[in-house]
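Lab notebook, bench 4. Still working through the backlog of constructs that have no structural model yet. Next entry is a single chain of 217 residues. Request: give me the structure tokens for it.
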Amino acid sequence: MNHQYPKRLGRLLFGLVLFSIGGYLSIQANVGLAPWSAFSMGVSGKTGLLYGDVSVITSFVILAIDLCLKEKIGLGTLLDAVLIGKLTDLFLALELMPVMENFWAGVAVLLLGQVVTAIGSYYYIGAALGCGPRDALMVALGKRLKKTPIGLVRMLIEGTALLIGWLLGAKVGLGTVISVFGMGTILQVTFQLLKFDVKDITHEGLLDTWRNLKQKG
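Model written out:
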């Protein structure tokens, strides 16, 4: 495996920033929250916790499930769990983009956010330093459901998150439907265009990274 850690870490962080921007755009689109955004907003509304704090807590719960499914936990997994939610909080606080008032403008922003999220996934998963908790779950299930397209696996996971968010009172609209079906499709197409198969990536666990860095030192 390529152990060029500065390059891989840069790719990882770049991908996580893109992923966070994609999530932020889906919120600002204002046409119905994306599944995980709906889940976090729903829990936030019921508990009073910040969106990012709910995201971080959820990430560590899913992380425990990933461990049960024997998926490798790497540096990227932990950085994803902590950074994505808090970066989204930062973007929301900075008000970098206004909330869309026009429906079709909102749909355009939502689709843009999904494309940005898919590209972010390509970069950070490709660093092979561990998937984020949610994507690790997608990959783990994808390995067990080998005949099921990875896009469909993602749809099933996100559909569950969406249902819970909706039951907790999160805003659901046409944009949410687009998110459920669109994200999986956009992810599938993006990965195909980039000739990228998540099932072919061998992720490096935390212990592997520690040993390799120790050897280099």
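Notes after review: The longest helix spans residues 5-28. DSSP finds nine helices and no strands in the chain. Flag for follow-up if needed.
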